């Protein structure tokens, strides 16, 4: 059975004229007639009464016409669906992004990228809260990109021979607290201060303990979590001091619901990096990588 046989038969059933149907199908009449015969042979019955003029469908032809029409429509629908999926897959990118960056950086960056080289569709792999698990999502191919912060005290266990990165920007990580009644920090960085802390396996857990290891006072951990958004809320509720990206608390600091605590020496500067596997040569991934080297990136 060939699809063109069904298409030929539907064309003939519509025109009831071999010459006109062959013309519509852009084949010679002899080739068209041969294909109708092949269909009839495959089915084991005669579909066209050729003894009359104009030709007419036999009883079997009448019964088979809606079947052929339905089969063709289903085939066309499936093909259209597959083609749409291929188009969508060709422009889809999957990213693993630190939870904070998915709020503060990713939306605007993706929008700008889409304007330059789109259309794109994107999917974000949820941040597991563990830096190691986020790296594994890139290594095992679940993600095309890893969007993360970077600082020398937090090792990025990716072989530079197999993975490469582009630096997209920078961020300041600063300690904040809820304000006291006079607007000064309710919690200050000193021995015994209440601390809203990160899990040790998270990027920020490793960053704060590594970058400030020789300066951090003895703390009283009153809450531990992995997501900056949640820890920010705990700090705003008065639980203690937490280090968070400045972009995440800019509005709260402007509104006075959070205040920076400590002097500027407690700030930590980090880079924003995008990593990919060198062997990932999908066209859309290469286009994004090439765009990042351009003047508008």
Can you describe this structure?
The protein is an alpha/beta fold and 297 residues long. The chain folds into three domains: 86 residues, Arc Repressor Mutant, subunit A; 101 residues, 3-Layer(aba) Sandwich (D-Maltodextrin-Binding Protein, domain 2), CATH 3.40.190.10; 99 residues, D-Maltodextrin-Binding Protein, domain 2. It is built from eleven helices and eleven strands. Strands 3, 4, 5, 6, 9, 10 and 11 form a seven-stranded mixed β-sheet that branches. It has a two-stranded antiparallel sheet with strand order 1-2. Strands 7-8 form a two-stranded parallel ribbon. Strand 1 and strand 2 form a beta hairpin. Helix 1 packs across helix 2, helix 1 crosses helix 3 and helix 1 crosses helix 4. InterPro entries: LysR_HTH_N, LysR_subst-bd, WH-like_DNA-bd_sf, WH_DNA-bd_sf.
Protein topology:
Layout: H1 3-15, H2 18-24, H3 29-43, E1 48-49, E2 56-57, H4 59-90, E3 92-97, H5 99-104, H6 106-117, E4 121-125, H7 131-139, E5 145-150, E6 163-177, E7 193-198, H8 203-211, E8 219-225, H9 228-236, E9 242-245, H10 246-255, E10 259-260, E11 268-277, H11 283-292
Parallel strand pairs: 3-4, 3-5, 7-8
Antiparallel strand pairs: 1-2, 5-11, 6-9, 6-10, 6-11
Helix pairs in contact: 1-2, 1-3, 1-4, 2-3
């Amino acid at each position: 059975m060939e699809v063109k046989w069904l298409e030929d038969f539907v064309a003939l059933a519509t025109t009831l004229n071999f010459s006109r149907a062959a013309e519509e199908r852009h084949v010679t009449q002899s080739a068209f007639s041969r294909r109708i015969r092949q269909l009839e042979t495959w089915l084991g019955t005669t579909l066209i009464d050729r003894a009359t003029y104009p030709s007419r469908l036999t009883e079997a032809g009448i019964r088979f016409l809606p079947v052929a029409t339905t089969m063709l429509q289903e085939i066309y629908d499936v093909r259209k669906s597959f083609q749409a999926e291929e188009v969508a897959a060709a422009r889809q990118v999957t990213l693993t992004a630190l939870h904070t960056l998915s709020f503060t950086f990713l939306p605007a960056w993706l929008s700008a990228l889409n304007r330059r080289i789109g259309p794109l569709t994107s999917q974000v792999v949820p941040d597991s809260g563990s830096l190691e698990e986020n790296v594994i999502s890139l290594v095992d191919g679940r993600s095309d990109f890893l969007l993360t912060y970077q600082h020398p005290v937090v090792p990025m266990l990716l072989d530079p021979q197999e993975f490469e990165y582009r630096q997209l920007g920078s961020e300041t990580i600063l300690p904040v607290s809820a304000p006291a009644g006079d607007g000064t920090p309710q919690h200050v960085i000193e021995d015994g201060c209440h601390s809203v802390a990160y899990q040790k396996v998270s990027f920020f857990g490793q960053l704060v303990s590594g970058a400030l290891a020789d300066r951090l006072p003895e703390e009283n951990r009153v809450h531990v979590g992995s997501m900056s958004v949640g820890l920010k809320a705990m700090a705003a509720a008065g639980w203690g001091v937490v280090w968070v990206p400045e972009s995440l608390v800019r509005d709260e600091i402007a509104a006075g619901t959070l205040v920076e605590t400590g002097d500027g020496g407690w700030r930590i500067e980090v880079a924003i990096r995008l990593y990919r596997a060198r062997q990932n040569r999908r066209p859309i991934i290469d286009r994004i990588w090439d765009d990042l080297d351009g003047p508008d990136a």
